[in-house]
Amino acid sequence: MGMTITEKILAGHAGRERVAPGELVNCRLDLVLANDITAPLAIQEFRKLDLRKVFDPGRVVLVMDHFTPNKDIKSAEQCLVIREFAREFGIVNYFDVGAMGIEHCLLPEQGLVLPGDCMIGADSHTCTYGALGAFATGVGSTDLAAGMALGECWFKVPESMKFVFHGELRPWVGGKDLILYTIGQIGVEGARYRAMEFAGETIGALSVEGRLTMCNMAVEAGAKNGIVAPDDKTLDFVAGRKKREFQVYASDPDACYVEVYEYEAGQIEPQVAFPHLPENSRPVSEAAGIAVDQVVIGSCTNGRLEDLRTAAGILKGRRASSRLRLIVIPGTQEIYLQAMREGLLEVFVEAGAAVSTPTCGPCLGGHMGVLAHGERALSTTNRNFVGRMGHPESEVYLAGPAVAAATAITGYITHPEEVAQ
Amino acid sequence: MIIKGRIWKFGNDVDTDLIIPARYLNTTDPQELASHCMEDADKSFAGRVQPGDIIVAGRNFGCGSSREHAPVAIKSAGVSCVIAASFARIFYRNAVNIGLPILEAGESVQAIENGDEVEVDLATGKIRNLTHPATYQAAAFPSFMQQIIEAGGLINYVRERMAG
User: Fold this and answer.
1) pLDDT score of B158
2) Can you say how many angstroms the Cα of residue A156 is from the centroid of all Cα atoms in its chain?
3) How far apart are CA A217 and CA B5, in angstroms?
4) Subunit contact A383:B64, Cβ cutoff 8 A
């Protein structure tokens, strides 16, 4: 019996020839990550261990992205804890305001996470990096503290589910639509504790950015990790960025999957997930006409250059509806700079958008776009739980950047083809 | 360890934003987190929960973010145990790591009603409803995990072992 790519990475990092689903294995970590919300708790726990150093100051990544630039005094105090820790322990990859980006946009861009890596992050969307063919999963702050100390973490080897996408995508359909569709099919616990492996010619044709979007939301189906086997696109993506060597893994043809789903991608319309769960995804045509008060384009799900290009392509020369606020947040400084060079930021500002420095802010109702009682947002983020973007009686609809841009123009949830130029 | 408490009932897919909304994540103070625990699901919870009370919920409890603040808020609010049909994986691991007892008990415990008094034996996984007499069996933690819970979490457990 062969192994899946997830099993091979875990075996490789546990010093084992092979592993099987359900086994508990202790793995060497290539990278550990925390942000300004999870790091303070991890540091508090780490300090209880009375250690003088982290396992490797070059393999601990700290990104100040959630409530930064500091939104209030308490957030500033939290960040101070991390800044002092980073200095004291000589953390090489410490990203503060002006250098930081939204962590899951930043790490692939900086070449910090590579194919074949085994890593943990104290952020549930750490599963994003599976798009590069890495095993990456979210943990809490205590596990992160142990990871910073030992450079190791134990895992239960997950069963793998395979999602095979066939055919060509329709216009205006991207990675976000594929993952919303998938979560709609299997539900928010449809992949609980499992690996979600994405494959098929549709995934092969999808950009690395689109794959990052898909793996990003694997956790919204309860998965431990999402993963796509590396191909030429992956290798091109990491070629100019990598700062160390890496290993490419792929699933064996006779690898074992608990479930295999096959989808005709050409049948999938742009998707919108209705409140209050990501599994409530429907074709955008079924959401047409729903008025919204705010559109957010950004986040670790859809804050990459390709997303901004898609949105700008629709918004160029247009104005956002005066009945809503349009907020655009490039994912990293590099994306921001490139969007500026390409004239995308000009398109957004001329459309009446507020363009922000990178931050997770509005996605979790932190700052930079919090919703009032009764308000409704359409957002390219990843969660539409009760109160996610602000008041518990506000609503969030999730979609990709094309639907978001089209909706911004009309003020109502809109299929991009209706406003495309 | 035997726990006895009054039940707070919640449904399926209780996410970490319901357990502790992100707007309160600018602190790690356990008491402050406790004061907002379950706020967006039941505003009265934090004010009325009594030490020892037990949460019973449906499937996928704790789905969403990796915030350890979620089990910390529940534990600091005085909740002695969370019983659910199933747990999201990051929450499950976080709860053990901070020493919050949790039991996966399948769908049968849904018969337990809000306000019932229930007794839980963490060593055996036996759950007894004292108000509406009935007994349920949950999977018990293996002994090393019970020791982590009794030590108050993973870091304390490691320190105790290193000192011992």
Assistant:
1) 81
2) 23
3) 37
4) yes
- Give the pLDDT band of residue A192 (cuts 50, 70, 90): very high
CB-based contacts of A347, cutoff 8 Å, min separation 6: A312, A315, A316, A317
Shortest CA distance to B100 belongs to which of B21, B28, B30?
B30
pLDDT attached to residue B164 = 66
The model's pTM is 0.97
Q: How many CB atoms lie within 10 A of CB A107?
A: 29
User: What is the pLDDT of chain B when averaged over all its residues?
Assistant: 95
B27 chain-A contacts, CB cut-off 8 A? 74, 78
* Across B93-110, average pLDDT: 93
* Residues A159/A194/B93/B70 CA torsion (nearest 10 deg): -170
Of A48, A142, A386, the CB nearest to B94: A142
Picking from A161, A145, A399, the residue whose alpha carbon sits closest to that of residue A272 is A399
**Which own/partner contact pairs does A236-244 have at CB distance under 8 Å and 24+ positions apart?**
A237/A108, A237/A132, A237/A208, A238/A111, A238/A114, A238/A115, A238/A132, A240/A111, A241/A108, A241/A109, A241/A110, A241/A111, A242/A111, A242/A114, A243/A111, A243/A112, A244/A114
Section A48-59 average pLDDT? 96
Residue A175 reports pLDDT greater than 70: yes
Q: Which residue has the tokens 């939204």?
A: A102
Q: Closest by alpha carbon to A231, among A264, A202, A260?
A: A202
Q: What is the DSSP string of A62-74?
A: EE--SSTTT-SHH
Which are the contacts of A87, defined by CB distance < 8 A and separation ≥ 6? none
Question: Considering only CB atoms, which chain B residues are within 8 Å of A48?
Answer: 155-156, 159
Confidence at residue B33, expressed as pLDDT on a 0 to 100 scale: 98
